Please model this.
Amino acid sequence: MSTNTSLNHAMKQAAWEFKLNVRNGEQILLLVVIPVIVYFALTRTSFIGGASWDAHSALSVAVTIATLAAGFTSLAIATAFERRSGTLLYMGTTPVTRLELVLGKSFSTFLLAMVSSFALCVVALITGWQPTSKTVLFVGVLLVGTLSVSGYAFLMAGTMRAEAVLALANGIFVVVLMFGGVIFQYNGIGATIASLFPPRALLILSDWALGGTSAFDSPVWISAIVLIAWGLLGNFLASKFFKWR
Amino acid sequence: MSSTPAHDSSSSAAVEALKINLDYGAGHGIFDISFAIGSGVTVLAGNNGAGKTTLMETLQGLRNPQSGSAQILGLDTFRHRAQLAVQTGSVLQGVTPYPTAKPREFLAYLSKLYPTGREANELMNTFQIPDRKSIKTLSGGEVQRLNCAAALVGSPKVVFLDEPTAGLDPGGRADLYGVLREQALQGVVMLITTHLTEDIDQLADRALVLNHGHLTADISKKSLASTDALTFDCRTNLPTEQLLSALPLESTARETVKGHYLITSPSHIGSEVIATVEAWCAQNGTQPQNLSVGAETLSSLVLAELNRDSSQVS
Model:
């Protein structure tokens, strides 16, 4: 199988998965509606931090949530139910190889994160956010951010029952929102520890790329390394333990 | 007639199993399976848990055998999966791929993956699949027809169909038989698992019988041409050896399912044989019911094999 054919299959699979995902109302809720609500909650109220947030910082938080929702929660649940229905096994009988299937899913997830982030950027532009020259790098941040957690989504989906994945992936998502250093910020050692995990590392990188003014105590390059390291570990574990049936 | 499974390694087989073993423990799995299929429709028959699905999936490279190998169109199933995927089609048992997709778009997507993909509309019409909002809203029979359509979407040379008629009503089965026979006439080689005797008689050129993971018989339809069969019902567990000794040479006599007996003979079965059967029944204090004489069917031989005592399987 040539690289061209493989790439062709992976892209077709990505387009197919993307088409199915964007039709799903729950996905839209998770990837667009919730992050937009968070964005407005941060910029229009003083519930969190005692004052309303500026558009840059709120946008960074919202896109981080959207990326985690696409790259982890949504991917884990969808893959787990596809495994249960036998879809993954079935695709093993088609010309799409397992690697192409995983690449297709990963790329589709990245596209979902792009679309939801684009929608958030449009909302933020209307409400006062101003992009900078660094904003083009945000595409790269999204890619690294998606891959940093997608391996763990595959790991859960490929080793646990679909119902357990549904509960756990949503549970982890809520815990990350509450305690991951994304919405509620830490200081000192708490912030340092949180920065070693994908949610806050992604927030730091997003904030940098979107031109935010938040002062994080962890350098951007460390956050990039943190995301890449978690991504490599997650995808390695998934490749070792993922079961197709 | 029934025979010990044979393996012709010199043939240019479409599907070939070479001493496949996959032992799940406690007697479950498939053991030392070897056969070769050159053309036509072959049915893989066996009781529940006999290992049919395991064998089908192993042949397609979806399960790894502990030993042995499988080849399709002369290529090793595991080493050449990508090459073989474009030349094979498959229905997996109990699988409904992409339940949230629309049936037509699912077939259209699959079609794009094959170099010789067939039109989704053509398959929707051939298999009479309604274009609903999603696959999960189709009935069981409609899903099964969609799965069969999906198996043929890539214009395959070899097709593996695991229980393709499950959930189909008699009309749906008849339609599917027509489509599959047409494919077979065009040279598509098929391996089908089924529980239905109707499937065997309507579709199969050959039957492979699996019993507790062992291939116990390889029966060709050609071998039935000159054989007459007498079937009847009476009390179970009668001594068939006693009857056999009174029948013409090369006849067979066995209880295929409880209380249902099958007599086969290379010569014509006439009133003499019927009288012999009636006398044998009377000798055992019973009377034969539903006596029927006709050409021997593939399914009757398969049933006879399936009813053999599992203790005969080593």
Notes: The interface with chain A takes residues 60-62, 81-83, 85-86, 88-90, 92, 94-101, 105, 109-110, 112-114, 154, 160 of chain B (CB under 8 Å). Residues 1-11 of chain B have pLDDT under 50 and may be disordered. Residues 15-222 of chain B form a domain with the Rossmann fold fold (CATH 3.40.50.300).
